[in-house]
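Exercise 3.2. Students should predict the tertiary structure of the chain below and write it as structure tokens, then compare their answer with the key that follows.

Predict this chain's 3D structure.
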Amino acid sequence: MASPKLIAAGVVLVIAAVVGSMCVFTVRQDQQALVLQFGNPVHAVSEPGLHFKLPIQNVEYYERRILELDPPVQQVLLSDQKRVNVDSFARWKIIDPLIFRQRATNSANFVQLFGQRLNSVIRGELAQAPLVTLLSDNRAQIMEKIQSTLIKPAEEFGVELIDVRIGRTDLPQETSQAVYNRMRSSRIAEAAQLRAEGEELKAKIQAEADRERIGIIAEANRQAEVLRGEGDGQRNVILGKAYGKDTEFFEFYRSLEAYKIALDNGSTMVLSPDSEFFQYFNKSGPATSR
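Answer key:
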């Protein structure tokens, strides 16, 4: 059976272990701590590792990592009287847990309070800018101005503001439809203008082509008439020479040409057998011997 001394020693060791565990706390790499006594802050601990406190004191832990603040989407009226839905966000981290606890109590409360402040500053800055500015490179300058405006208020919460950005800037549904209708009307008008210009150019090209065609045909007809006249002249010369050499043969040839023209066109002629038209048919040549 254990002696009373051993039992007492064991009890003392247990009490010492319990009290010792109440006097030690650990801070991780991604944490910082605030030591409280009866609910009142005593001091902050930012270094990771093993630390000591009084048994009557307790510890609250805060994030050392960069956190995000994503307030609700808000509708903003721009300087050109256009409304846009703005979705903004910010990145921040706690640099003074004591001030942070005094001003915001916890992260959830800070997100609510500073999120309202963020939206208010964004509304004020965007109200001075037209929509075209938000769609241009000047948007970065607006974000820098918003961030510089919020740095001091963030420090009042014991927070460092890392960055502020506008994630999306969308037009409301009714505004989007109106913009779409205007763009559609503009494109339709532009298409009609291009179509009219195309028709005008087409008419000019066709007129020029017709003018050239008429000129080409006229020149071709002129050359044809010249060649035809030259041919007729040469023909008459040849026929004149032939007529001078053999008058009877020339008359016979002319009659054959007349027969060809009269009989090839499918016409019906009623002539007497002794007509001059058939004078060469009525002549009998010398009889052929059998």
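Discussion points: Residues 285-290 have pLDDT under 50 and may be disordered. Strands lie at 24-27, 31-37, 40-45, 49-52, 57-63, 67-69, 74-77, 83-94, 159-170.
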